[in-house]
Design brief:
Helix 2 runs parallel beside helix 10 and helix 7 crosses helix 8. The chain is an alpha/beta fold. The longest helix has 30 residues. It has a seven-stranded mixed β-sheet with strand order 1-2-7-6-5-4-3. The protein contains ten helices and seven strands. It has one domain.
């Protein structure tokens, strides 16, 4: 997480819980959301492409660093909206684990097509308190994320709940196998084969646990009309989270505009490889 250049402890303050049961309701305030275009530009760009790769490919092809960045980021529209929701949940999920560190692959770096969502489970983190020693405290976190930024027909809460079932039954296992294959071929920042194998073989002693979330990221102007789809009783097998963001569409577009301009600088001391 450090290589993204984001203060995850400060990010915890973005996600204040208005309630915790029977579902979690997070209301991001307008002050935090309006600051994201300045705070998150570099971090979001690094979710797609590292500083080292931007600089290396620009030098190799004699093009601007901004052109390399543009080749990685989604265009405005549904994919950008969905990607932003996933990245926001990536930060939320990591922040909720503090003071423990959560290790998570940046799946957006593994896309084959920038105009389409990343494949498989949306957001995955590994919590390994005693690593490299496996322990019964090891946990895998998996979130299914749906985003609603405009007043359309989508029902993000019920859709996230429905697709969370897929994660719990089969998709997460396929995701881990896919990540392992990708890790054999390229560096996956924050995750290596040993961490992946720990959860692929999660029943080996000491057994690890899995925690699933169904998350809806919804524009604040629309959220009250969506809450009828939230559960009336706390689910046993997963947690429902609703994150309300003021002016969600203009907020994520401003963040991606900043990400497009977030070229590496000599003062950057992170950003990693791959």
């Amino acid at each position: 997480m450090n290589d993204l250049g984001i203060d995850i402890e400060a990010a915890l303050g973005w996600f204040l819980h208005a309630q915790d049961a029977p579902y979690v309701l997070v209301r991001v305030d307008a002050e935090h959301a309006s600051a994201w275009s300045e705070v998150l530009g570099v971090a979001v760009r690094r979710c797609y492409v590292s500083d080292d790769l931007v600089q290396a490919r620009a030098a190799a092809h004699g093009v601007s660093e901004a052109e390399v960045i543009g080749a990685a980021l989604p265009d405005r529209g549904s994919t950008m909206s969905g990607d932003f929701g996933e990245i926001l949940v990536y930060f939320y999920q990591a922040a909720q684990e503090l003071p423990q560190q959560a290790f998570g692959p940046r799946k957006w770096r593994l896309k084959q097509d920038r105009t389409k969502p990343a494949p498989h489970s949306d957001v995955v983190h590994f919590v390994l308190p005693h690593w490299p020693i496996p322990s019964a405290d090891d946990r895998l976190l998996c979130s299914e994320v749906k985003t609603k930024a405009t007043n359309g027909a989508s029902a993000p809460i019920s859709e996230a709940i429905t697709d969370c079932i897929k994660d719990r039954t089969s998709r997460l296992s396929k995701t881990l196998a896919w990540l392992r294959e990708r890790a054999l071929l390229q560096d996956i920042q924050d995750v290596d084969l040993a961490k992946l194998n720990r959860f692929i073989d999660a029943t080996d002693p000491p057994p690890a646990t899995r925690h699933f979330r169904a998350v809806a990221v919804v524009c604040a102007d629309l959220v009250n009309g969506q809450l009828d789809d939230a559960p009336e009783e706390t689910p046993k097998d997963y947690t429902v989270v609703v994150i309300s963001v003021p002016k969600l569409k203009s907020t994520y577009e401003a963040v991606y505009d900043a990400a497009r301009q977030a070229v590496p600088t000599a003062s950057d001391d992170s950003g990693g490889v791959a």
